[in-house]
Specification:
It is a single chain. With 278 residues, the chain is mainly β. It has one domain: Jelly Rolls, CATH 2.60.120.200. Helix content is 9%, strand content 33%. It contains four helices and 19 strands. The longest helix has 11 residues. The protein is globular.
């Protein structure tokens, strides 16, 4: 479980402490970066999500402060639900994750209550997904993926993040909270034998790191909550480009950051930044 540490220093507009430097300031060049906190100082003041409220289906954008200070809850209204239409990409590429189909949208406000994981705002993907327009063109087959999430209840093939397709033997990558209900080890799976890493179906929030090596057939490494957790076996990736998975996945997902390069030398620094917030 990620320990809760109060962010240090700096001021956010309207009050509240933020770090003087953010994750992508120190570790830039991410392919995509989705979070309910700010990840880049150049992005401060911009919204991180677009929400649809159930009472009248109106849409509105919200910043991290507006998510936590009651603005979002008040706008959605008592007893209503707030569904995520868009999770804005904070990288320089603006690859926003969008879901316009009402029945497929994940939820952030449930019956008037902000959903949280380890006391931080989160998004509930209960068989829902956000589709993003991540173009694989020009992205190396090297990938480093950092994701914060929590399994609510085990389901088969509960995807947190997947790109590529079965025929994509170069660029594909996917992270699942479990490949089946039993056994339920996290990691990757697409016709490849699963590595022997940890079970995360413990109702706790986890930081999952995947760093792939130089080719689809080469191995990389898994890290769970900053600790080495097995070998990354080459995989062809998932069947779509999405966060979450329709009809599957019963998880909270709080943050996903993907780099197009091997971030082994920066792994500790990136994980330390994430852990300090969550």
């Amino acid at each position: 479980m990620i320990n809760k540490i109060i962010p240090l220093f700096g001021k956010r507009r309207g009050g509240g402490a933020i770090p003087s430097r953010l994750l992508l300031d120190d570790y830039p060049d991410a392919s995509v970066a989705y979070s309910l906190r700010y990840l880049r100082t150049g992005y401060i003041g911009s919204p991180v999500i677009k929400v649809r409220r159930s009472s009248d289906n109106l849409l509105a954008d919200f910043t991290p402060e507006e998510i936590t200070n009651g603005t979002l809850v008040s706008w959605v209204g008592a007893g209503n639900n707030g569904f995520v239409n868009t999770w804005f990409d904070q990288s320089l590429f603006i690859r926003n994750a969008v879901q316009t189909t009402f029945t497929s949208q994940p939820i952030i406000i449930e019956s008037g209550v902000l959903l949280t994981s380890n006391l931080k705002p989160t998004i509930k993907f209960n068989g829902k997904s956000l589709i993003h327009n991540l173009s694989l063109t020009g992205i190396s087959y090297l990938h480093s993926l950092f994701a914060v999430g929590q399994v609510i209840a085990p389901v088969s093939y509960g995807d947190w993040f997947l790109i590529g397709n079965n025929s994509d033997s170069v660029n594909g990558i996917n992270l699942l909270s479990q490949a089946s209900i039993t056994p339920s080890n996290w990691g990757t799976f697409q016709g490849i034998s699963r590595p022997s890493n940890s079970n995360i179906n413990d109702s706790l929030q986890h930081l999952c790191t995947m760093i792939r090596d130089t080719s689809i057939t080469a191995n990389g490494n898994f890290f769970l909550d900053e600790v080495s957790d097995g070998t990354y076996t080459g995989t062809s990736g998932g069947l779509s480009k999405s966060i979450g998975r329709l009809n599957q996945c019963n998880d909270f997902i709080s943050e996903i950051v993907l780099y197009p390069s091997n971030q082994t030398s920066n792994r500790v620094g990136i994980e330390t930044n994430i852990k300090k917030y969550y």
